[in-house]
Design a protein that fits this description.
The chain is mostly helical and about 160 residues long. The chain folds into two domains: about 5-120, 3-Layer(aba) Sandwich (Malonyl-Coenzyme A Acyl Carrier Protein, domain 2); about 130-163, no CATH class. It has helices at about 20-25, 25-40, 45-50, 50-55, 60-80, 90-100, 105-120, 140-150; strands at about 5, 85-90. Strands 1-2 form a two-stranded parallel ribbon. The mean pLDDT is about 90.
């Protein structure tokens, strides 16, 4: 059997993520410990208990989702599941790079923390937002953005799939 592992991006976070893996599997605990050490603070506690306001800040969300994804990957790998291919959506690309052996866990969490910080600095908390729009063509969405831009900057910036 050939399997592909596809890793999630930002937006999949929630307080409590990764806790069950941490509780049940020593390899997951090792991943969280490595992430905590690389970051210099407990991303583990933030993943497990939040608070949501802090977890949802991009600077924290990105290393938190990565750590939880890497913990899951460690458990799957230890169980003998080896992917034939890996991919990730946005932030998930970093988990895929670790899964492919191109990047270490410690380097990945440090990189995504910086990635999150730079993204957060580009649009400070409370100033702007992002929405996933489904069911429209690119042309329809761009027309709506042009119309809405009378109130400020509104741009379609990422087309993940048709519609």
């Amino acid at each position: 059997m050939h399997a592909a592992f596809i890793f999630p991006g930002q937006g999949s976070q929630y307080a409590g993520m990764g806790r069950e893996f941490y509780t049940r599997y020593p390899e997951a605990r090792a991943v969280f410990a490595e992430a905590d050490q690389a970051l210099g603070f407990s991303i583990t506690d933030l993943c497990f208990t939040g608070p949501a306001e802090e977890l949802n800040q991009t600077v924290n969300t990105q290393p938190a989702v990565l750590a939880a994804s890497l913990a899951c990957l460690a458990v799957l790998t230890r169980a003998g599941l080896k992917p034939a291919a890996v991919a990730g959506h946005s932030l998930g690309e970093y988990t895929a790079l670790v899964a492919a052996g191109s990047l270490s866990c410690a380097d990945a969490v440090r990189l995504v923390q910086k990635r999150g910080r730079y993204m957060q600095e580009a649009v400070p908390v409370g100033q702007g937002g992002m929405a996933a729009v489904m069911g429209l063509s690119a042309a329809e969405l761009e027309a709506i953005c042009r119309q809405a831009s009378a109130a400020g900057v509104v741009e379609a910036v990422n087309f993940n799939c048709p519609g």
